[in-house]
Amino acid sequence: MGYIALIGTRMSSIRICAYCKKAVPLTKEHLWPSGIIARAKDIDTSYLGKLEKFIDADLTIKDVCAGCNNGPLSTLDAYICDLFDAQFSHPAIRRQARTFIYNYEMLLRWLLKISYNTARANESDVEALSKYVEFMLEGGRTPAEIQIRLELIHASPNPNWTPGSSTIKAIPAVSLRCARVETPENHLPGTTLRLVAIYGFYFWVIIMPPKTDSSLFHSGLPGKLLPPNRSKLSLYSTRGMLELHADWIRNPRAAQSMRDLRVRRGR
Ligand SMILES: [Zn+2]
Predict the structure, then answer these.
(1) How far is it, in rounded angstroms, from Cα 205 to Cα 190?
(2) What secondary structure letter does DSSP report for 85?
(3) pLDDT digits (tens, 9 = 90+) for 105-152
(4) What is the rounded CA–CA span in Å between residue 50 and residue 167?
């Protein structure tokens, strides 16, 4: 329905906000919050240019009203910037336990929001995500059919590094990604799987059809389930950047989606 509405708004002269659905003047919004982009640049600019990154920093969407943009959505962005300072900016160390402290409702609302923004820019998963716009704006009861898994990724030693060489010694987990994921292990029809990665924190967002036995799905997925009724999760990093990429490359559909992404960006 959201997808049809989006197409409809393009063809007609009246445009409606993708969130509140009101026909009001619309503003331009960046996919990634400006606060995150600014923080990512602060960490180490030299990494950002050198490393493979799938950041959609330059992508904008133009179907959000000022009321939503400057109101509830900016509150969510402020929350994620706080999480960045408290958590994401501190790299995960291999096999070292970490405690992730979170507000489940705020985190899920933000993950859905950035996924929905990216989905509209790429015209995929729009329908599945648009069902949750009210929850993104106002919060309330967390949808039971959505689950979040968190995986920590640590830096990998750079195989091309030798003493005295100008290349970096370790490949840090510093990318920002928001993407649709298709895995061969995804046996459940009608399930949407999204990845939102902020540095070493990889959030796998699983949107299942109602009344699904979620245990069937989880067997093939990385990370640890983030309990909705808690605010702390202890976990440790088991995969490095290179292992993550190797797994990704072995997965033909994921590799294809990465190639498509590069083509879309003219690289
Ligand atoms: Zn709005």
Answers:
(1) 14
(2) I
(3) 999 999 999 999 989 988 889 999 999 999 999 999 999 899 999 999
(4) 10
CA of 122 to the centre of ligand 1 (A): 20
Tell me the pLDDT tens digit for each residue of 63-102.
999 999 999 999 999 999 999 999 999 999 998 999 999 9
Q: How many angstroms is it from 142 CA to the middle of ligand 1?
A: 21
Q: How far is the CA of 160 from the centre of ligand 1 (A)?
A: 49
Give the rounded distance of the alpha carbon of 130 from its chain centre.
16
Among 72, 80, 73, residue whose Cα is nearest residue 203:
80
Assign residue 198 a region (left: φ > 0; alpha: ψ between -120 and 50; beta: otherwise): beta
The dihedral through the CA atoms of 172, 51, 259, 261 has a sign that is: positive
Domain ranges within the chain, ordered by starting residue: 2-264
| Ligand 1 centroid from CA 18, angstroms | 7
Q: What is the pLDDT of residues 231-254, one digit of tens each?
A: 999 999 989 988 887 766 666 555
Q: Which two tokens stand for residue 217?
A: 């799905």
| Alpha helices for the chain (secondary structure H) | 2-11, 34-43, 45-50, 66-70, 72-83, 104-122, 126-130, 133-138, 214-218, 241-250, 252-264
* Separation of CA 22 and ligand 1 centre (Å): 6
How much distance in Å is there from the Cα of 119 to the middle of ligand 1? Answer: 17
In angstroms, the CA 206 to CA 226 distance is 11
